[in-house]
Amino acid sequence: MEQEQDPNAGREGGLYPKPERKRVREFPEWLRKPWPARYDTRTQEILAGLKLNTVCQSAECPNLGECWNRGAATFMVLGESCTRACHFCAVKTGRGESLEKLADEPQRVAEATRQLGLKHVVVTSVARDDLADEGAGHFARVIRALRETCGPELIIEVLVPDFHAREDCLRAVVEAGPDVFNHNTETIERLHPPVRPQGNYRRSLEVLQTVKRLDARMTTKSGLMAGLGETPDEVKQTIRELREASCEILTVGQYLRPSPQHLPVAEYVTPEIFKEYERHALALGFKAAACGPFVRSSYQAEQVLVDAKH
Fold it and tell me: In degrees to the nearest 10, what's the CA dihedral of 3, 36, 77, 226?
């Protein structure tokens, strides 16, 4: 199997820490996902017509064709540029758009949801550390627009940045009334500095704890990536700490390198190991756990929530 070129080559001290396993490039059989034979352009046309961003495109999700074929998409609000520079993420880093230019975005998201006929909508965003409320108020406006346009039966799931665990920001989103509050921990504590340098593992746990304290009825969710150099025991410890933080739904998926400028893949985790993580989570009391190579935070979110309710 061909190895990737070491990105630390020629760099004093190294840009990234040395992983614990070989960096590999060739995909194993379980990670070869063909593009759908039939591709329905309706979803793409609706999104383009309403000038909306999706994490499906911005994060180069491998499930895009499958999801768009069934009329599902994850909206990414607050612009296309993120004020943070995580080393795993394909979303570009830069100065965010002014809120004035995004004033009608809540209505556009709601209209796209209506046209697509979604029963479960997922809304995420770039991080906006440049804004006084870090974008929390905009999230609240999107939630309210969705309720007004699509009615109370629509299931609204939000996937938010950490807002620096500020209670005022978290309260603004919680009080707008989403059904599922998702904040991704992304990786184990040891790997946070190289993977998510502007994030903080303990702060992410605090976000989930605070949300549950603000509204005990709110369904909480978090996600992790595998294949960045973590050990199975470290993943299991993280899953345990998420449960202790009152997290109820878990997703774990394979990290895939978006470009040579991003962190290399340390390991392609086998489906058997993902199943082990799933069993571990359910044994700890998670209401639902979706763990597998192609699992992403919002992938088949509707079915994951159904599983949590049964």
Answer: -30
Give percent above pLDDT 90 in the chain. 65
Question: Lowest mean pLDDT: which of 4-13, 64-73, 247-256, 270-279?
Answer: 4-13
User: Is residue 131 a contact partner of residue 93, using CB atoms and an 8 Å limit?
Assistant: no
Q: How do residues 101-133 score in pLDDT, each as one tens digit?
A: 999 999 999 999 999 999 999 999 999 999 999
Residue 204 maps to a domain = yes
- Estimate the crossing angle of helix 105-116 against helix 42-49, to 10 degrees: 160
Residue 199 has pLDDT above 50, yes or no: yes
| Residue matched to tokens 């006929």 | 117
pLDDT of residue 17: 39
Instruction: Give the mean model confidence (pLDDT) for residues 131-157.
Output: 97
CA distance 297 to 250: 8
Residue 27 within a domain: no
β-pairing, 249-254 vs 120-125, is unpaired
Tell me the one-letter amino acid at 248.
E
- Look at strands 120-125 and 155-159 and give their pairing: parallel
Residue 112 contacts residue 122 (beta carbons within 8 Å):
no
Asked whether the beta carbons of 141 and 106 are under 8 A apart, the reply is yes
29 CB burial (10 A radius; 0-12, 13-18, 19+): exposed
Please tell me the predicted confidence (pLDDT) of residue 202.
98
Q: For residue 185, what are the domain limits?
A: 35-308
> Is residue 101 one of the residues assigned to a domain?
yes
CATH number of the domain that 130 lies in? 3.20.20.70
DSSP 97-149: PPTTTTTTHHHHHHHHHHHHT-SEEEEEE---TTSTTTTHHHHHHHHHHHHHH
Total domain count, the chain: 1
Query: H or E element: which one contains 76?
Result: strand 74-77
